[in-house]
Amino acid sequence: MWVEDWAPRAACRASQPDQLFVRGAEQNKAKQLCTGCPVRTECLAEALDNQIEWGVWGGMTERERRALLRRRPNASWRAVLETAREQAAPTTTISASA
To answer: In which domain, by residue range, is 44 found?
Structure first.
């Protein structure tokens, strides 16, 4: 399920914003903050759809996001990521036992 108002649920909500707008090796520390974030996908979609140039968003650096944007410049990233999430979700099957 897609979370529209994702920012209040973000793992970084209590962090200092400067922690996410760093350069070089410090970006790896910032990306770790995104690990396990419940709204990582929504955050990434926001950054890609709005072509946000700076900072770590959804666990990706500016360079990583630019590479995605070059591959699919006209994509609706929300649609792409939402579909990928749905396809990756395990399906639950109910088995009947006698």
So the answer is: 7-88
